[in-house]
Amino acid sequence: MSIDYSERIPNNVDLAEDRRLRRALESWQPRFLQWWAEMGPALPTRDVYLRTAVSVGREGWAHFDHVPLPDYRWGIFLAERKDDRRIAFGEHKGRPVWQRVPGEHRADLQRLIVIQGDTEPASVEQQRRLGLTAPSLYDLRNLFQVNVEEGRHLWAMVYLLHAYFGREGREEAEQLLKRNSGSEDSPRILGAFNEETPDWLSFYMFTYFTDRDGKYQLGTLKESAFDPLSRTCEFMLKEEAHHMFVGTTGVDRVVERTAQLMREHDTDDIGPYGGIPLDVVQKYINFHYSVSLDLFGGETSTNVANYFTAGLKGRWQEERRADDHRLTDAFAVVPRVERGRLVDVRLPALTALNADLRGEYIADCATGVNRWNRILAGHGLDATLYLPHVGFNRRVGVFAGHHISPDGRVLDEGSWEAARGRWLPTAADKEHVRALMRPVYEPGKIAAWVAPPRNGINGRPFDYEYVHL
């Protein structure tokens, strides 16, 4: 059956006029819908109050209505093209950006798109069963909004593969639906996207920390000299902001409720009163932050240096940097472990671009921790949350294989094992959190372990019926 692309798949890439691309997507769409039915949200719903992008303009990119999830209009949008856009970095700096894939960079660009594309359906799979334990209809709606937008981001990457990479691109698009999060036989490419998201505290942490990594990865691809990729990522960043909002305000509300219970019962041990103790919140921060740091890869990378020099992938906010944007003679300071001590070493900036991006991310993550500590202070509590040392609990990069405490001490294995239960969620911690995860589907009601939001969605009140079950 042919598809009305102006209605079913809103787009600004002239799908209706491109017969070859239309046939490719007509073949791929049923497989996507089958994947969504099998691996998408497990909770049956009638419809959900969703934001749908129908154009890239101010009025069109955020259209709200109740929509059945399988009928969501997964569109394909690129930010508006700038005719005079020039390459901002690397050896081609100052030349016009590319509208086609240069042959010498074809494999690298395809790989970058596939890795980004693989993360999008992975998070949907990780969050598949969360709707069964949603703390409110407001939260349930936000979960589904994140899910459909991750699905749309998959469409965005699949469009690029189909439109610019021929048969190999089509084959890679098929593989994006065949890999599954946590699968032993065919796992997702990046480790963080094979971890479980078994509860809502994990979901808030994932959308705060891991989706924030996505923001920075998309930000580097937005600088790309391959203009269709740049424009695609620029539009995706608009939607990624909502995912991080869900995480930031979700943890806000957990901390708020935890602080209320601590004051009400005059104790840190609020588990018996139906809350999540602050030390457990800290352990979840430690885990999700450290796992997300691994997504930045090793501190040094010749591949990333080559991507930068070739113009494939820039730095975060590249054009705001006050340097020559070539980095051939620049240096950076990067931490590592030598002889059981943490030391700083001076390395060529080109090979340390992963560390540069990670530094931007760390500074951004700290803003949320400051928010959460202001909430605690507002309740008259002296307790504080923190980000652990960059080397804590790492499996990728220079800290992999070392045991670093949250305060930055290098430990032997015995000391690490003796203390890890104080720093990372234990089986008992996870069981306590899971025991709190009882669904609340009545409009205006919310689970006792989390505070209600200050505002509803799109001007609607908190007690609006965001989801019809």
Proportion of residues in helical segments? 40-55%
Query: Could you say what the CATH topology is called?
Result: Ribonucleotide Reductase, subunit A
Percent of sequence in beta strands: 5-15%
Number of domains: 1
What is the helix/strand order?
Answer: HEEHHHHHHHEEHEEHHE
User: Based on helices, strands and strand pairing, what is the structural class?
Assistant: mainly alpha
Strand order of the largest sheet: 2-1-7
Radius of gyration: 23 Å
CATH architecture: Orthogonal Bundle
Morphology call: globular
The CATH superfamily turns out to be Ribonucleotide Reductase, subunit A
Annotation, overall tally of beta strands: 7
The biggest beta sheet, please?
A: 3 strands, antiparallel
What is the overall number of helices? 11
Which residues sit in consecutive blocks of at least 5 with pLDDT less than 50? none
End-to-end Cα distance = 30 Å
Mean pLDDT: 95
The CATH class label is Mainly Alpha
GO cellular component, one term: cytosol
Protein name: Benzoyl-CoA 2,3-dioxygenase component B
Keywords: Dioxygenase, Oxidoreductase
GO molecular function, one term: dioxygenase activity
SSE topology sketch:
Layout: H1 19-39, E1 47-52, E2 63-67, H2 106-126, H3 137-164, H4 166-178, H5 200-222, H6 227-265, H7 278-294, H8 302-310, E3 331-338, E4 341-348, H9 353-378, E5 403-404, E6 410-411, H10 413-423, H11 427-436, E7 467-468
Antiparallel strand pairs: 1-2, 1-7, 3-4, 5-6
Helix pairs in contact: 1-4, 2-3, 2-4, 3-4, 3-6, 5-6, 5-7, 5-9, 6-9
